[in-house]
User: Fold this.
Amino acid sequence: MPRTFIDLFCGIGGIRLGMEEAGFHCVMSSDVNKECRNTYAANFGEIPLGDIRNIDENTVPDHDVLCAGFPCQPFSISGKMKGFDDTRGTLFFEICRIINAKKPPVVFLENVKHMVHHNHGRTLEVIAGMLESLGYKVSWSVLNGSDFGVPQNRERIIIIGSVVSEFDFNAVKKKPRPRLADFLDSSGDFEYLSPDEYTLIDSPK
Assistant:
């Protein structure tokens, strides 16, 4: 039997892609955004459940890993950074509600890197403290997608809770940083701008 996971705040399925590539099987997904659910359904052939607040934790299937890319806007420098004072920020506690009911062996959380510094580090302390109170050994690290084969500088905090032992981020295998040019089509009917239609900045800051 394949190991299983649930995909909370699933968006269009980015975390699911990685989990399935690692050999895991998704047994439940959820996202409040209708358009995300429609795209997810097109990608994976199943429609996620809606608002996590309306999900009875006792109906959630048993699973090995709980995955959640919970809303980042309350913690991002691009937003108002209200944290848990933002309704979206409190959705983390909905994750804890499901964790408390189902006790998965592993919890995998993803958010913006600024969570490390949000509210002088207290937000991360609350999240880690809640997971620890639920019986998990917690570790975290800021990882960059460009170190794992993605041609994009995209840094995110990854928080792992395990009932057995702390996750060793030093064991994570990285890949050489790719070039965007290697991902672009080299043939086809493309429209290009001529040099007099754009400006390159010599010393961008």
Residues 4-177 form a domain with the Rossmann fold fold (CATH 3.40.50.150). Confidence is low (pLDDT under 50) at residues 74-79. The first helix runs from residue 14 to 21.
